[in-house]
Design a protein that fits this description.
The protein is α/β, with parallel strands linked by helices. It has four helices and eight strands. It has one domain: CBS-domain, CATH 3.10.580. A hairpin with a 2-residue loop joins strand 3 and strand 4. The protein is elongated and about 50 Å long.
Length: 132
Amino acid sequence: MAAQINVEHYMTRSPYTIGQEQTLAAAHDLMRIHQIRHLPVLHGGRVVGMVSMRDLHLVETLPDVNPEHITVEDAMTGDPYRVAPQASLCEVAREMAEKRLGSAIVVEGNKVVGVFTTVDALTALADVLGKD
């Protein structure tokens, strides 16, 4: 039986985060500059949501929406999927697939230590498949 691989082996460490009171424009800029698609949303240092590039595009296409005035809180998904760094990669990937999630926030206590995305999952899959 193969050893358990944990999420921490494939997660993106020390991810960028954004405050829920920041604007959609600020979130969009941060994502574009750093070429990322997911931002954990914080309030008072605690995770309160996740906002994705898809969330931003959805809200920004609504009539009369000015990304300079709408906050991240209005576009984020509340109560995001959170896991510990030691969580089983297999279990996390299965949960993400079943719930059709694009990411998981990796936390230790209340601190965000990483983000695990579908891109990270594909990297893990390629590593496993490449070990023929």
